[in-house]
Amino acid sequence: MHTTLLIRICIATLAAGALAACSSTPPPIEAMAVGRSTLHRVSAAPNVAADAPVELQRARDKWVQAEKAMSDKDYVQARRLATEAAADARLAESRADAATSAASLKQVQDGIRALDEEIKRRAPR
Asked: Which residue of 17, 42, 43, 121 has the fewest CB atoms within a 10 Å radius of its CB?
């Protein structure tokens, strides 16, 4: 009788442990929200699609994978992919900003060059 009780207690403990292990990874709700909002914000910027299409597409692909992992209840994978999608979206945004800055710099340099040529042309000889 004592052995049967001990076996039942062990089985109950193992079952409780197994249930706890299954539910130990909570759904990455915050990471998914951050990933979604970052991707939407960056996608809405008109210069990002033109200046960083590869990075933006990579972010979108990872977001789709994150959503699939979330629906499959693979929360570790979903969190990782959502975080990577947000990082790739921010990278696309940074690359687009860098391209915009480079274009602005070129305009300023061209303006300086034109002014310098004008000054040299008008200088008394």
From this structure: 121
